[in-house]
Amino acid sequence: MAKPATVFVCTACGNVVPKWAGRCEACGEWNTLEPETPSPGQNDRRAVRAGIRGVDFVGLDGETPLPARVPTGIAEFDRVLGGGMVPASAILVGGDPGIGKSTLLLQAAARLAGSGSRVLYISGEESVAQIRLRADRLGLRGAPVHLAAATVLADILAALSAEKQARVVVIDSIQTIWDETIDSAPGTVTQVRANAFALIRAAKTQGFALMLVGHVTKEGALAGPRVMEHMVDVVLHFEGDRGHQFRILRGTKNRYGATDEIGVFEMTGRGLAEVANPSALFLAERHGHVAGSAVFAGLEGSRPVLMEVQALLASNPGGTARRSVIGWDAGRLSMLLAVLDSRCGVKLSAHDVYLNIAGGLRVSEPAADLAVAAALISAATGVPTDPECVFFGEIGLSGELRQVAQTDLRLKEAAKLGFERATLPRRVAGGARRAASPDGIMLSEFGHLSDLVA
Ligand code: TYD
Ligand code: MG
């Protein structure tokens, strides 16, 4: 039999190409292609499988009991999972190194173990002594978690198959696990994929919930967890700015629930604390009466979140104007600047524009357009926006303001935090209009961005 040809796999997006290149043609990342040789077993399955059985087909209407979820006991975590972990499922928790993945999973493991589930915590990154030290700091020393430091896949699988009672197994991290039968280093795409596959299969056949930690790195030294995303049932990203205290757990894939929920945590000296009221946290450092700031009433999943949009303009006549954006889409900012320029006469082409969502949040909703525009107009005119007012609404290319989803929910959150006014797209035909919301918020409704500028 011919030797299987080596292919190259992108560690960032999983794209497979026959020839090495410096840049992945699919995702555009540099230096992410790694060689991979298909394992010899992959090509002679037919020889191995003598007794072929075929597959059985059934109807859609059969009875399948809903699996009872296992709540972690950490409400913010359970919210993102859609109510808790589903038995025999695999959850991938990805995030930058040092963001707090191990801390979060150790806290979840301790909660679960404390409520009577048998929880195995296998670390390939830290020694048992290090984990105990961390548990001490988190005040979790007494939790009946079963701890092990291991990296060899065969050892882990043997231990798991000897287990009958385990309900939850944590592997920290998948990049440290090593399958000795594969001829590449731990953390390479081949290793990560094979190990994840074996562990997920163990979870499915034995019925425990599997939590895998995966580091996201750009360097390509460790395989990005992207290559496993299609294998697992749930993908969660733990993100945040290491310079800030709070962290956001965001679901990007969930076979058992919605993917747009977020969980908000604060990193404290004693581990991660849940943040039940994120709006208050995100607005805590806001100074009213500063030009270039506006409060956006946003929505993360089913939950309204208020946050501050900050814009700064620096005069730059002659040179190429800079546009720097943190936490929002740069393309959307360019579009808004163009709309402000050609529909409202606000010329910013001779200015560098800096835009920031305060606190390190990332916003993807088009509803933020109006708050960004308000911050930009305020920065351009030097007039602070009303500090008691929230903004939300989408802006179209002709400068028209468009309705966004869940207006009432956003207004309710604003009222809860003591805001008195809101600026939003007009809800009935006609010109600008004033009204009061059921929560007592005074509404200023506009049809076109130029009305707001005026
Ligand atoms: P860690 O969970 O080790 O990150 P990851 O597993 O994602 O690599 O957490 C790393 C950081 O969290 C570490 O730099 C210190 C900080 N930290 C606290 O601030 N408080 C704590 O109680 C703990 C355990 C960690
Ligand atoms: Mg860790």
From TrEMBL:
Stored Pfam families: AAA_25 (PF13481), ChlI (PF13541), Zn_ribbon_LapB (PF18073)
Keywords: ATP-binding, DNA damage, DNA repair, DNA-binding, Hydrolase, Metal-binding, Nucleotide-binding, Stress response, Zinc, Zinc-finger
Domain of life: Bacteria
One Gene Ontology cellular component annotation held by this UniProt entry: cytosol
Every RecA family profile domain range: 66-216
NCBIfam families: sms
Role, per record: DNA-dependent ATPase involved in processing of recombination intermediates, plays a role in repairing DNA breaks. Stimulates the branch migration of RecA-mediated strand transfer reactions, allowing the 3' invading strand to extend heteroduplex DNA faster. Binds ssDNA in the presence of ADP but not other nucleotides, has ATPase activity that is stimulated by ssDNA and various branched DNA structures, but inhibited by SSB. Does not have RecA's homology-searching function.
Name this polypeptide is given: DNA repair protein RadA
Organism of derivation: Acidiphilium acidophilum
The organism's taxonomic lineage, starting at the top: Bacteria, Pseudomonadati, Pseudomonadota, Alphaproteobacteria, Acetobacterales
